[in-house]
Amino acid sequence: VRLEAKGQVDVGGTWGIHGPEGTTKFSEQPPGYYPLETKLRYGVVAKITPAVAKKNQPIQAWVYGEKKEVIAARGGTLWLTVNDDAPEGNLGEFTVNVTVVKKKKSM
Q: In 3-state terms, what secondary structure has residue 87?
């Protein structure tokens, strides 16, 4: 899966305007407030949830910034969001191009 993001989001307050890569300066909150607990916040994050969930099956998640290419461990639903604990006040947008490259079958 190739992800390429462009754009800016104003996350409000004194936290500023950020591109897809986000920033290391953010509001400290207890675990679970941000969509993805990482060292970067207010940028683009992606996750894949399984189409059929199995007990204790992990969700594959990434913080990726402007460009990222990953090998998905399984199929499912790709979710994209701003890594913000209060996204309802955001202004602006990220445009993300998603390219799915199927694995070549070995002969």
A: helix
